[in-house]
Amino acid sequence: MQIFPCPFCGPRDEREFHFAGEAGKTRPDTTGEVSPDDWATYLHMHRNEKGRTREVWVHTPCAEMFIMERNSVTMEVLGTECLRAKS
Amino acid sequence: MRRLDDKGAVIDRAKPLNFTFDGKPYQGFAGDTLASALMANGVRIVGRSFKYHRPRGFWGAWVDDPNAIMSVTLNGIELPNCLATTTYLENGMEARAVNAWPTAKHDIKGGLDLFHRFLGAGFYYKTFIWPDWHLFEPMIRKMAGLGAVTPDHLDEFHSDQIHDHCDTLIIGGGASGLTAARVAAEAGQNVVLVDDQAQPGGSSYQTGTIADTAAADWIAAQMAAIKTAGGRVLHQTTAYGVYDHGLIACVENGAFGTAPRLWRIRAGRAVLATGAIDRPLTFAGNDKPGVMSLFASAEYLVRYGVLASDNAVVLANHSMAKEAVATLTAAGMAITQIDPDTPGLKAGGWQVTNGISVSGRHHPSDVVLATSGLTPLVHLWRHAGGKLTWDDARQAFLPDGQLSNMQAIGAANGTFDLNHALDEAQAAGLGQSHPRQDTSHHLTPVWPKPGSKGRQWIDFQHDVTLKDIEVAARENYVSVEHLKRYTTLGMASDQGKTSNMAGLAAMATLKGATIPEIGTTTFRPPFVPIPLEVYHGAKTKQLYHPVKRLVLEARHRDADAALCEYGGWLRPGWYGNGAAADHIRDEAMTARTTAGILDGSPLGKIEVMGPDAEAFVNFVFYNTMTTLKPGHIRYGFLLTEGGIVYDDGVVSRIDNDRFLISCSSSHVDGVRSLLENWRQDGNNPDRIFIHDLTMQWATITVTGPKARDILNGLDLDADVSADALPHMRFIETHHQGHPLRIARVSFSGDLSFELSIPSRHAPNLWDKVTAVAGTMDAHPIGIEAMSILRAEKGYIMVGKDTDGETMPQDVGFGIPRRKKTNAFVGDRSLHTDKANVPSRKVLVGLSVPHGEPPLVTGAHVVTDGANQRSLGYVTSSYHSPFLSRAIALGMIEGAVERVGDEVTVWHDGSNRRARIVSPCFLDPNGERLHA
Prior knowledge:
The complex is a heterodimer. Chain A is globular. Chain A has a four-stranded antiparallel beta sheet with strand order 3-4-5-6, with no helix packed on it. In chain A, strands 1-2 form a two-stranded antiparallel sheet. Chain A has one helix and six strands. Chain A is mainly β. Chain A has a single domain (3-24, 40-82), classed as Folate-binding superfamily (Folate-binding fold), CATH 3.30.2270.10. Helices cover 10% and strands 41% of the residues of chain A. By secondary structure, chain B is of the alpha+beta class. Among the domains of chain B are: 158-277 and 375-429, FAD/NAD(P)-binding domain; 442-518, BFD-like [2Fe-2S]-binding domain (Arc Repressor Mutant, subunit A, Orthogonal Bundle); 559-602 and 696-790, Probable tRNA modification gtpase trme, domain 1 (Gyrase A, domain 2); 606-692, Alpha-Beta Plaits (2-Layer Sandwich), CATH 3.30.70.1400; 837-917, Elongation Factor Tu (Ef-tu), domain 3 (Beta Barrel), CATH 2.40.30.110. Chain B is 22% helix and 29% strand. In chain B, the strands form 14 sheets. In chain B, strands 9, 10, 13, 14, 15, 16 and 29 form a seven-stranded mixed beta sheet that branches. In chain B, strands 42-43-44-41-35-45 form a six-stranded mixed beta sheet. In chain B, strands 46-49-48-47-50-51 form a six-stranded antiparallel barrel. In chain B, a hairpin with a 2-residue loop joins β33 and β34. In chain B, α4 packs parallel to α9 and α6 (294-304) packs across α7 (321-330). The longest helix of chain B is centred in the N-terminal third of the chain and has 14 residues, at 215-228.
């Protein structure tokens, strides 16, 4: 059972969190032409890195999304930061 | 086997206890385990092996015993698969061997052993493939498994779950663990010591003296010092798993029949002092009752005062045996020592052993005490991610390197010398590392000898013999993980505690490799079997997923509502105590002829506010929302980025910067998350605010030709005439001074109003509405009647009439896909090749001839001809009381082109005919809707 540090609420049990996606993915501008490959990459291709990962998570009780860096092998949490600072 | 008067540190002879085994009465003492009490009574056969039903005696004295598995009954509570060596005796216990009938001694299936030639490794896979495995499966399933669960007492079998934390968690209360705990506690740390026995001390009782003090006194002194220094001790508590971020799961056993208690402990650091277990020797007949662990027999003597026999053959390949042999000899056991490396070693005897035959000579004895070295219990070290290293001197895998939050000490660390172990414990107590000392003991490796004669057991519980390992090697199941699964080595309830090392060693010899080259299988929690109750605790039955409750529930109960779960809410399915179908039919008729009153409170009420609200709502909805005027309502879809319909609902624009999203009752949480997701990740969250008011506002839906008359009877300060409040319009007013929102929307196809009011005022409004309605012969209706009404009109329920492939154009809403110019969620996915194929399943109605019963929901529409193929299926099907006929909706391939066609509907082997029609069976011109 992991403990994740929500940047707003502090360390909390993993059951309070949801994974929301890999960080750094941007939505293609769909008002223009988007090739099938680009769209498929956006929808389905995830890096799923072994080791250091950078992900978006949501802390469900406070509903805030944030960036978490963690090690997907050792499960060590390397740090969290608020998402809006990045947007 | 007998009890000695001057031994037995943990039993209380003043408290005799009566119990039975396989129907025969025996007596033991408080402090005994079932195993020690049976041994004291001279019982030698205590179980049967799993496959061959061979007689089994005790091998071990604690968790490492693979043999003595019993079903135990006390005070009407029966628990299957109790390990006799770890079950503390209580007065009145009735124990039975689980895999034997009628008794372990006379087991009717004992004859299976004669067929062992045909039941070797992989025999399932080789034997039961022709003509069909399923032919044999029922018989095999019946024979497989151990014990039977009687669910009767499970209602009372609740596990507490406790969360705790400490600076230092010491796992194991032997000499090392006690020392580390005392030192850590005296150094001011918050210490918890967990020990799995009722009396701590581990194997220290086998040591005559520790630090010049008698072992029992030394143990008592350590315990007293730990408690004085503020340390806590959990007895009968097993640390069974280490999980992510240092969580250590411990299970605390109480009196027999009570559910164990789970402790989830977060420790700053853990000290692993779990000790080591004896390992068997592999020789012919080594599974016979009477062949037991040397150290276990010493443990039975010192803890419980039970001498296994007056004479014994000892087979030991190391110097650590010396002390145990001396202890047993001093207690009166006559011991013959034989070199276990002698070729042709064989344990004789029919059911139980009668000694060892070797080199043409028989050494008679009642027991054979075997040991081939100690295996450190490194399970938790591996759970925590620690590495192992092979140590040649000890012939064992030892903890290797450092873990930031765990330190192994004592025998668990391979430190079998007591003085070294105490030094390690001292250092660990203070949080200091201590390099492992060289062992003073010498050990001559004696491992299984493939190719040697006789049936030699590797896994006693699952009947894996050396021959089976040879077969696996021959058939190239040489990886340890394959070896394990092919032979079931180490897959019994003891998880290979005694068998894995011998199995690995045998495979190493067969492959000409070393043991570390073969490697170990993965160590996974739990270390000992744990009842499932421990994992779920109180989170079960209703508490597993609590239903959401309506503020009007008391009103519904007073009206005899049948409350059922719909999408996580407890809602009235219908009202009345008669036959459900009759009530549902009557309610559907009432709603069409006068009016129905529905508690629609679970309908989503999510407000989206702020300067960017309009652009945001327009982006998350499939339908264009920029053109929606304040006071107007629009129906729309929320899609996933894959273009799939996630939910539908209506959007009301309260004013320019404020929208109210009314999503499906069961999707509120999901829609809120989806909106938050897009708000925070992709938009400026300071310009959009999302506020879920679903719980704060109740909604009462009034639907039917008399709906407006009912509203007019409520003394509302609002004009609800067709001109002032047409279909898809919205007004805010008051009811008795409280805010009231009236939305003219319809899920039934009739004139309908949704009245929303802050929840605490809802009972008042409900009373008023139902009172006025009653004067017009209109009544409350449940969700079942509403399901019929909406199907008559061809309105879909997302998730019922749609599936994981449905796009909005499939349910008749294709315009935004072609016309909407702004970006919206899922937009690009609506123009993929797959989204454009003409064979997509689309929503249609299905009509059967008048008088025929409804189609079965889920029935398939199939092609005609020899090779029937599914074209789609029936998603909703009802008898419509108002239309006096069966109606149905379905999702069918390319069906828009086929309206009017007759199709075959297949269900469960029979075919019916139906006609593809428009999904709207009622009021196609909207006269009732716009009334």
